[in-house]
Write a structure and sequence with these properties.
Blueprint lengths: L1 H29 L3 H23 L4 H29 L3 H12 L3 H32 L2 H6 L6 H8 L3 H15 L5 H35 L7 H25 L4 H11 L6 H9 L3 H26 L1
Helix pairs in contact: 1-5, 1-9, 1-13, 2-5, 2-8, 2-9, 3-4, 3-5, 3-10, 4-10, 4-13, 5-9, 5-11, 9-13, 10-11, 10-13, 12-13
Length: about 300
């Protein structure tokens, strides 16, 4: 068991750790600005990997419908859990909003996609594509609502979807598949090259962002959130979310590699982008940043065990 765990760490997490550590060191010692890389990832690399994956993905319409059903059910149930726990602990409105962001949004893009690719190969990445695209749309719509209902604008949330290049990449890829048309080989190769660059860049950005989160947490030490809110966020993200996902996947009859991939993606640490929403709308950013940091650190132990169990 121990040897298998070490093997999983070596084969899956060691390759992931290299660009993460690289980004961390560049941010710490060279003051690297993550915004240009984040823009590169969002507007070029993410649409490319989505387009390339969907265009060649071995995924059925049954997989698509199952993934969408699972994603929506998970979102609603985790939201309900966060609301109930907030009421039980009598959290203030800001911490309640922060706990909702912590509970419902996972780092399935920067961290999840590279992990799935290394752990389950190209087929795993194919299965993950629909879930990840759905998460991008949900974060830019429902995420705004969760962060600050008083600031929520249906029109702004709706239009924010159309600012995501990955959405257009998805539509074009689906239309090409339905029509049976194929890209010229050289163009297809170009998108494949861009898609291959996604993982190292995204992981380097993740490493740099973790330094930002850690620094932010230190700067706000005098205004730390309540321990009840912090531990509630940790327990929901690291324990309740994986257990709920396993139960839903079983009840929905989802099996095989799709089961494995969806369980891993919903067991990811809290999304780094959650703190951006928390800061923008005053949804307890200190609470969110602390939970991002500690759930990410805990995932280095938890996720290898989960992957080993699935294998």
């Amino acid at each position: 068991m121990l040897l298998q765990l070490l093997s999983t760490l070596y084969q899956v997490f060691l390759p992931i750790s290299l660009p993460v550590v690289g980004g961390l060191l560049l941010r710490r010692f060279r003051g690297m600005d993550t915004r240009p890389l984040a823009l590169l990832s969002l507007y070029i690399l993410t649409p490319s990997i989505v387009f390339n994956t969907l265009l060649h993905a071995e995924i059925s319409w049954q997989d698509v419908s199952s993934t969408i059903s699972f994603s929506l059910l998970t979102l609603v149930l985790l939201w309900l859990i966060a609301v109930l726990v907030s009421r039980m602990l009598r959290l203030n409105p800001q911490e309640k909003a922060g706990l909702t962001l912590i509970s419902t949004f996972t780092n399935s893009v920067n961290y999840g996609l590279p992990l799935v690719l290394l752990a389950f190969g190209q087929l795993g990445l194919d299965k993950a594509s629909v879930y990840v695209i759905g998460q991008m749309v949900i974060v830019n719509t429902v995420g705004v609502f969760f962060a600050a209902r008083s600031h929520f604008s249906v029109r702004q949330a709706f239009t924010s979807i159309f600012r995501l290049p990955a959405v257009y990449a998805t539509v074009i890829a689906v239309l090409l598949r339905l029509s049976g048309l194929a890209l010229p080989a050289t163009l297809d190769q170009g998108f494949a090259m861009l898609a291959a660059a996604y993982s190292p860049v995204a992981l380097a950005v993740l490493g740099a962002q973790m330094i930002n989160v850690s620094s932010r947490d230190e700067e706000t030490a005098a205004h730390r959130p309540s321990r009840r809110a912090f531990w509630a966020g940790i327990m929901i993200r690291l324990a309740a979310a994986p257990l709920l996902s396993w139960l839903l996947l079983t009840l929905l009859g989802i099996e095989g590699i799709l089961f494995h991939v969806l369980l891993i993606l919903t067991s990811m640490p809290t999304a780094v982008n959650a703190v951006i929403l928390a800061e923008q709308f005053g949804a307890a950013p200190q609470l969110v940043s602390r939970c991002i940091l500690w759930t990410t650190l805990a995932s280095v132990v938890m996720l290898p065990v989960l992957i080993l169990w699935l294998q």
